[in-house]
Automatic annotation (TrEMBL):
<dbReference type="GO" id="GO:0051539">
    <property type="term" value="F:4 iron, 4 sulfur cluster binding"/>
</dbReference>
<dbReference type="InterPro" id="IPR056740">
    <property type="entry name" value="ILV_EDD_C"/>
</dbReference>
<protein>
    <recommendedName>
        <fullName>Phosphogluconate dehydratase</fullName>
        <ecNumber>4.2.1.12</ecNumber>
    </recommendedName>
</protein>
<comment type="pathway">
    <text>Carbohydrate metabolism; Entner-Doudoroff pathway.</text>
</comment>
<dbReference type="GO" id="GO:0005829">
    <property type="term" value="C:cytosol"/>
</dbReference>
<dbReference type="GO" id="GO:0009255">
    <property type="term" value="P:Entner-Doudoroff pathway through 6-phosphogluconate"/>
</dbReference>
<dbReference type="InterPro" id="IPR004786">
    <property type="entry name" value="6-phosphgluc_deHydtase"/>
</dbReference>
<dbReference type="InterPro" id="IPR020558">
    <property type="entry name" value="DiOHA_6PGluconate_deHydtase_CS"/>
</dbReference>
<keyword id="KW-0479">Metal-binding</keyword>
<dbReference type="Pfam" id="PF24877">
    <property type="entry name" value="ILV_EDD_C"/>
</dbReference>
<dbReference type="GO" id="GO:0004456">
    <property type="term" value="F:phosphogluconate dehydratase activity"/>
</dbReference>
<keyword id="KW-0456">Lyase</keyword>
<feature type="domain" description="Dihydroxy-acid/6-phosphogluconate dehydratase N-terminal">
    <location>
        <begin position="76"/>
        <end position="387"/>
    </location>
</feature>
<keyword id="KW-0411">Iron-sulfur</keyword>
<dbReference type="GO" id="GO:0019521">
    <property type="term" value="P:D-gluconate metabolic process"/>
</dbReference>
<feature type="binding site">
    <location>
        <position position="230"/>
    </location>
    <ligand>
        <name>[4Fe-4S] cluster</name>
    </ligand>
</feature>
<dbReference type="GO" id="GO:0046872">
    <property type="term" value="F:metal ion binding"/>
</dbReference>
Length: 614
């Protein structure tokens, strides 16, 4: 069938954007590929290690595993796990190592838990001091991954992680060992409980004082009720989408519920596949070579098509930099312009990720994007060459055998997923803003079109708690733009600011025009209030957001892509930055240990990372 002019045009623009990333990254990517090629040659096999080194490496193994590691030729598979049993998303990983070890032994090799990485939950720390460690935990996880693999006894690695900072940290760490193959193994979402829409309503009622804490806790407990990721489409589930569309998961693995036969079969198959793609066989797939510029472009397209988390405007940049690839927010914006929004999953709709999966899920979305010329289909994946395999879904036969079948050709519910020919919006749900306040991103997919432009006087705050106090005092009257600054990575670690959303949502529902401008974060659950987030440079780094004064007219324009303040240019140039006392954010709950991180961290648009940017 001949391509339509539209598909041909989209393909051409996709190619142009990808090619400019390739040109921009040429030197850094070349150096990275040279380094991992050298590591593949120099990395000692177990047979080349000293006898004491080898003995330490298999001392705790059983007789069979010890014999294989000592004398055999099979692969040794490293397991890097984010397991803990207080977080719903990571609790299912408890029994994964046993499944992976059994699969490795069946393949003639061995699997060992190489190390653990921390996994903190933004839901638990939301609005608390611990949230100021959240973004930095990503880079701690990358460092922990490097430590886990530093023994250099492994031929490939599987990564057990699912939530917000864990997956990006694992990817960065895996790319520091880019000569090793890597397979990411999800745990899946919890089953559906109280709807996200009903949960949000209870939160707003609580913010207004119309229901008490008992009602709020009961609603939250009904929503977050079992093992697995939270069911809304925030950063954790965006991670899973991205790992699949970037070819690091097995096809169709992302959204299968935990503790089911299919979930366990997919985990076993992931371990088997990791054993097959080592340098010991003839299908060697080092992760650093596999994750090229086209793969990262595919990930960004998936982000836009599904209305995913704005956190990935930082995470993807940081992950790509670890592979020697230079991404910019302009790339995100230009890809959003050619990518249709194909999904409505909360907070961009009423459905949760289980509904998304049932309505067609990843297989349907990938097929539609391939058909519309919006994905590089010829990339390498852990499953093989090309993305076509990712238009198929895993199933168990009546005998319990794992197999893949073609995914649905049509949407099971067009209120949740739609074909590219009938999208929810013609362009992706993310917009880059720039102007005299700085650069920022805004997620538009959940915002009513009449709220895409807000111009109003500024009300300035230096914490989300300060805004909440103003709300409770009844002083947030009329139309306004809330400017919440000194919330960036250098200031206090860039915590998520979700406590802002219920009061701002209440005021918006009352008919006020409100918007948020902040150098902090809101992730994938920013919801229905216009929010220009990740403003860079941040206030603590000399950013112009620190010049805004109470009553200045601020314009957030998601149509024109601008973020401006209506102040006489001479007056604006003469202003000095407002200051904030950040001492309280630098001590307690371990924050004193992260002073070097705050000093070294880069800007949001370069990934907000402590590592050298490509």
């Amino acid at each position: 069938m001949a391509e339509s002019p539209q598909t041909s045009s989209v393909k051409a623009r996709l190619g142009e954007i990808t090619e400019r990333i390739v040109r921009r990254s040429h030197d850094t990517r070349s150096r990275y590929l040279d380094r991992i090629a050298a590591a593949a040659e120099k990395a000692p096999s177990r047979a080349k290690l000293g006898c004491a080194n080898q003995a330490h490496g298999f001392a705790a193994c059983g007789p069979g595993d010890k014999a294989m590691l000592r004398e055999g030729s099979g692969a040794n598979l490293g397991i890097v796990t984010a397991y803990n049993d207080m977080l719903s998303a990571h609790q299912p990983y408890e029994h994964y190592p046993a499944l992976i070890r059994a699969a490795a032994r069946a393949a003639g090799g061995v699997a060992q838990v190489a190390g653990g990485v921390p996994a903190m939950c933004d839901g638990v720390t939301q609005g608390e001091a611990g949230m100021e460690l959240s973004l930095f935990s990503r880079d701690v996880i990358a460092l922990s991954t490097a430590v886990a693999l530093s023994h250099q006894t492994f031929d490939a690695a599987v990564y057990l992680g699912i939530c917000d900072k864990i997956v990006p940290g694992l990817v960065i760490g895996a790319l520091s060992f880019g000569h090793l193959p890597a397979v990411f193994v999800p745990a899946g979402p919890m089953t559906s409980g109280l709807s996200n829409d009903d949960k949000s309503k209870i939160r707003q009622l609580f913010a207004e004082g119309k229901v008490g804490r008992d009602a709020l806790l009961e609603a939250e407990s009904q929503a977050y009720h079992g093992p697995g990721t939270c069911t809304f489409y925030g950063t954790a589930n965006t991670n899973q989408m991205m790992m699949e569309i970037m070819g690091l998961h097995l096809p169709g693995a992302s959204f299968v519920n935990p503790n089911t036969p299919l979930r366990d079969a997919l985990t076993t198959a992931a371990a088997e596949r990791a054993m097959e793609v080592t340098a010991l066989g003839n299908d060697y797939r080092p992760v650093g070579r596999m994750l090229d510029e086209r793969v990262f472009v595919n990930g960004i397209v998936g982000l836009h098509a599904t209305g995913g988390s704005t956190n990935h405007t930082m995470h993807v940049v940081a992950m790509a930099a670890a592979a020697g690839i230079k991404l910019s927010w302009d790339d995100f914006s230009d890809l959003a312009d050619i990518t249709p929004l194909l999904c409505r999953v909360y907070p961009n709709g009423k459905a949760d990720v289980n509904h998304f999966h049932a309505a067609g899920g990843m297989a349907f979305i990938i097929r539609e994007l391939i058909g519309d010329g919006l994905l590089h289909r010829d990339v390498e994946t852990v499953w093989g060459a090309g993305l076509d395999a990712y238009t198929r879904e895993p199933r168990l036969s009546s005998e319990g055998e794992l197999a893949w079948q073609d995914g649905p050709a049509t949407s099971g519910d067009e209120n949740v997923v739609r074909p590219a020919s009938r999208p929810f919006h013609a362009t992706g749900g993310l917009k880059l803003l720039s102007g005299d306040i700085g650069r920022a991103v805004i997620k538009t997919s959940a915002i009513a079109s009449e709220r895409h432009v807000i111009e109003a006087p500024a009300k300035v705050f230096h914490s989300q708690e300060e805004l909440q106090r103003a709300f409770k005092a009844g002083t947030l009257t009329g139309d306004f733009v809330a400017v919440v600054r000194y919330q960036g990575p250098k200031a206090n670690g860039m915590p998520e600011l979700h406590k802002l959303m219920p009061p701002l949502g209440v005021l918006q529902d009352r008919g006020q025009k409100v918007a948020l401008v902040t150098d902090g974060r809101l992730s994938g659950a920013s919801g229905k209030v216009p929010a220009a987030i990740h403003v860079t440079p941040e206030a603590a780094d000399g950013g112009a957001i620190a010049l805004i004064r109470e009553g200045d007219i601020v314009r957030v324009d998601a149509v024109a892509g601008t973020l401006t303040v209506k102040v006489d240019p001479a007056e604006w140039a003469a202003r000095t930055p407002a200051t904030a006392d950040l001492e309280a954010s630098h001590w307690g709950v371990g924050r004193e240990l992260f002073g070097s991180f705050r000093a070294a961290v880069g800007t949001a648009d370069t990934g907000a990372t402590i590592f050298a940017v490509a």
